[in-house]
Each structure stands twice: as C-alpha cells, then as structure tokens.
C-alpha cells in the first residue's frame, strides 16, 4: 500500500508539486524501501535523459521560406481538397473498367431488362433529331399541334401523346414519361414507332 | 504578434526566428523525423501568417502556436500510421537488443559519451513508440517545459487528463529504457 502510494507521488515529486508533508513522507519511505528508491531513480534518470535530448536547429532560411509560402497561400484558397496521387490511377482504372464493361455489356444488359427487346431495331440506326411536340394541355403560339414531319406517321396519329415532349420556347423542359428530364437538348430514339419515347439521349 | 496582425512582414520574420527552434523541436521529437520537421514547421508558420487575424489579442501567442504545431504533428502521425511508414515497436526492441551489450559495459571517456548518444537515440525512438496522445503531452511538458495549464489549452483537454497522460507517458518511457539504464549502485 505504501509503495503504491509512493509511486503515485513520483510525478508530483519530480515536478516539485508535492506538499511538504508528502515530500517528507516520500523521502522517509525511500529511506526504508530500496525498491521504491531504485524505481524512482530510474524514473528520474529517464526524465533527465528525455530533457537532455539535443535541441534541433531550424534551417537558417525557414523564416524566408515560410513568408514566401504564406504570401502564395494568401492568394490561393487556404485548403483545397487534394486528391491523393496514389488514388488517381486506381480511380482512373476503375472508371475505365466500368466504362468498358458498360460499353460491352450495355446493349445486352438493357436488352435483357425488357421483354420487348426482340422488337427493337439496333440503337445506332434508330437515333433521330430532337422532336418537339406541343402540349395538348398548353398549346402555344396558336399552333394546334405542330408535330414534326419527321415523326413517324403512326406516332403522330396516337393522340393524345402521354409521353411526348413539351415545347416551352426558350425555357425548355423536356418531359419523358415516367421520368422528368432536366433542361437541355434531347434526341429521341424510336425503334419501331410503337415504343415512342422509350429511349432518349440527353445532351447538357 | 500584434504587428504581424497588422500585416508587417518583417515582424512575421522576427516571430518565426524567435519561435522556430521550439516548434521544430516539438515536431521533430513527436515525429522522430528531422527532415519532415522542417517542412512541417514551415507549414505551422504559414498557418500563423494566413490566420493572423484570427489570433485573439491578450491570449498567449505560444499557446496558439503550439496548438497549431500539435495539431499538424497529430495529423502527420495519423497520416503516417495510415501509410504504415512509422517504425514499429519491434524495430525499437531490435535497436535496444543491439545496443544492450555496448551499454552494459560502459567505460570512461569517449565511450561514455557514445553511450550517452546511444541512450539519447534510444530515447528518441522510444518517444516515437508512445501512443500519440501521451507523446504530445510528454514532449510539451518534458522537452518544451510548458506548464500543465498551457498544455491543457494546447491539447484542449482538462488539466487532470494532462497530468494523467504525462504520467502514463513517463512510465512507458521508463519501462522501455529500463534495460539500458544502469543502476547507480552498479557503477
């Protein structure tokens, strides 16, 4: 018990933060307990050694270098998020593999999702120019239904068009059922005419 | 610091020259890496300059400076741990094993001086093996001589925790160095 208490006082004794009573008690204990005295001597030698570690000199030009870098930092944002260089090839590689996989398996994957795949023409052959169709609910510019002449005849006949594109002049929002697409230019893929607006390429 | 806040570059240079030794010692002892310490010390002073207007007048500049230095050192330790570039406890034990026969047979003169240097080297490495939170506290206290209250401010922890961490670190260092420390009675 005495030895445990004595060891608890080592730090305060070294830092000269013990009370006079504590100091006297500890010195008395050291006189009667060689193990604790030896333990404290090793403790003190460790801290002497720690405190005696040679001081390291800074480079003579540290102040100038710091000032130059500080000036540059003031003109640039303080902390830009830095991409770790070692992640760049990994990320790029993963992206390349993903892109290659999508390119190779894309048609097969998209085809396997739909039971109507057999009815479709190849994608490359069926992309057409953007087709603008005025909304029946919001006719504009007095035109009743200005459907582009390039739209297949059977598609134009299917009125009303639940998934047609609406023209709002300059502020255009293309809507494809069931997904609302964002602003931009759209080109619609028509496969056989019966699958109107099913596939779209959006360019922003 | 007040002059630095008013954009006096000359005052900043003076400030760096005055504190660079303490900052570089703190960082190099915590990291046990002299080369990186120089770059990191530079980063400390860059941050001081960039954030000079955030310094609250009336507060102790060294506390603010050591807070920045301690945080950067902590970040660097964590980065190294992630990258596994930090030397391991096994490496330290190898070092102690190698140097033990030399140290067990000390003689006078230059060999004694060599013993001292090797002990210091062992101590520097031992500091690196102490867990980061204890290491920073003990370096601030026993190498930089900061009072407990200031260390509490620098590390943002209560004073009691500071004392406890310093005591733990000292005990760890004593245990690690014990095989190399000759007893007074033996010499």
- According to CATH, the homologous superfamily of the largest domain in chain B is Winged helix-like DNA-binding domain superfamily/Winged helix DNA-binding domain
Which range best describes the helical content of chain A: under 10%, 10-25%, 25-40%, 40-55%, 55-70% or over 70%?
40-55%
Number of domains of chain B: 2
Question: How many angstroms does the end-to-end distance of chain A come to?
Answer: 79 Å
Largest interface: A-B, 31 and 42 residues
- Proportion of residues in extended strands of chain A: 5-15%
**Largest pleated sheet of chain B:** none
**Apparent shape of chain B:** globular
Averaged pLDDT of chain B, please?
Answer: 81
| Total strand segments of chain A | 4
Tell me what the structure shows.
The complex is a heterodimer of chains A (204) and B (187). Chain A has 204 residues and is mostly helical. Among the domains of chain A are: 2-51, no CATH class; 119-204, no CATH class. Chain A is 46% helix and 7% strand. Chain A has 8 helices and 4 strands. Chain A has helices at 2-8, 10-14, 20-32, 34-51, 62-75, 87-113, 123-126, 153-157, and strands at 175-176, 179-180, 185-189, 199-203. Chain A has a two-stranded antiparallel ribbon. In chain A, strands 3-4 form a two-stranded antiparallel ribbon. In chain A, a hairpin with a 2-residue loop joins β1 and β2. The longest helix of chain A is centred in the middle third of the chain and has 27 residues, at 87-113. Residues 137-148 and 166-172 of chain A have low confidence and may be disordered. With 187 residues, chain B is mainly α. Chain B has 2 domains: 2-83, RNA polymerase sigma factor, region 2, helix turn helix motif (Rna Polymerase Sigma Factor, Chain: A, Orthogonal Bundle); 89-186, Winged helix-like DNA-binding domain superfamily/Winged helix DNA-binding domain (Arc Repressor Mutant, subunit A, Orthogonal Bundle), CATH 1.10.10.10. Chain B is 76% helix and 0% strand. Chain B has helices at residues 2-5, 9-31, 34-50, 61-83, 89-104, 110-129, 132-143, 148-155, 159-177. In chain B, α2 crosses α7. The interface between A and B is large, with 31 and 42 residues.
